Amino acid sequence: MTTFVWDYLPEYRSEREDILDAVETVFESGQLVLGKSVRQFEEEFASYHGVDHCVGVDNGTNAIALGLEALGVGRGDEVITVSNTAAPTVVAIDSVGATPVFVDVREEDFLMDTDLVEAAITPRTKCLLPVHLYGQCVDMEPLRRLADRHGLRILEDCAQSHAATHHGRIAGTMGDAAAFSFYPTKVLGAYGDGGGVITSDPEVNANLRRLRYYGMEKVYYVVDTPGHNSRLDEVHAEILRRKLRRLDDYVAGRRDVARRYEEGLGDTGLLLPANAEGNTHVFYVYVVRHPRRDDILAALKERYDISLNISYPWPVHTMTGFAHLGWEKGSLPVTEKLADEIFSLPMYPSLPVELQEKVITAVREVVTSL
Ligand SMILES: *Cc1c(COP(=O)(O)O)cnc(C)c1O
């Protein structure tokens, strides 16, 4: 079976010397944990975003969890987010003891419908958690106004949107803090797990540094408030430093892939990703939509042995693990409808053109023969 979904090997083969040199640099440095590479990556990632601080952590889920904790979100608080996201967004909210409150998304671009947020605010609401899904930003201006009016914090989930912009501002610089994942498939990916939180708030920065290091602050071996062990690994930090220099090229590569899909599939009746007003899209996932999604995927498998992904087939509020939250089926109609109609085409910057052509030819034939 051909999955075509994702493969890091083409990129590794073209960057092998640099990646191996990064590993060697760390091994020779004499410091394997929280050393020079983490410090330098944090400075460079903060500077790329024009913010004061970046704190490297162990993965994107903990970037969200520690971000929430550092913003003062905890047990009994409510966090407004979407169900149309990767489950880790909601797992992270749950892990700090807070309650996720879902709003529906916009049908055109799958992003948080900010018009629905105010009605979801209660006296327990502490934080807004917009997810910049698939590679483009949520409309942040209305959220900022609401947060200011109601005294709420904003944590951006940037796990899918490195380098995306909204009205000229880069993802992660429009809230109080922003959480990133550097999972290998992400727009900026390590060779294993990694994450980071950026902020310009000195108190949030100090909280994050304490939280990722057992809760220790100034004096090692002394804990005031217990935290976690959530450090970014030194090897991944050094690899990420090298890859950060190529981030804009990776994004350009993703846009080339997207352009070829538009040229090859734009006239087939398949709904291609819409660019929301003011946004530049970085195409972390290339999500298309068709009411006969299941027939299309079955035919692709049967006729071409091509198996494609769905991001995501089950909205988070319908998962057994979140049944206790009490969200009935039907409570988020747009999210639920999209989950039945979307599927993803292979998308990564080093996707070989001939593989992409194969996918385009197959999808074109299947969709136009329905
Ligand atoms: C990948 C992802 C995460 C979790 O990141 P990990 O590094 O896998 O823990 C969180 N939110 C979204 C939207 C993601 O896509």
UniProtKB/TrEMBL annotation:
Entry's Gene Ontology molecular function annotations: pyridoxal phosphate binding; transaminase activity
List of catalytic residues: K186
Modified residues (N6-(pyridoxal phosphate)lysine): K186
GO biological process, one term: polysaccharide biosynthetic process
Keyword terms, alphabetized: Aminotransferase, Pyridoxal phosphate, Transferase
One Pfam family it belongs to: DegT_DnrJ_EryC1
CDD domains: AHBA_syn
Entry protein name: DegT/DnrJ/EryC1/StrS family aminotransferase
Species of provenance: Streptomyces boncukensis
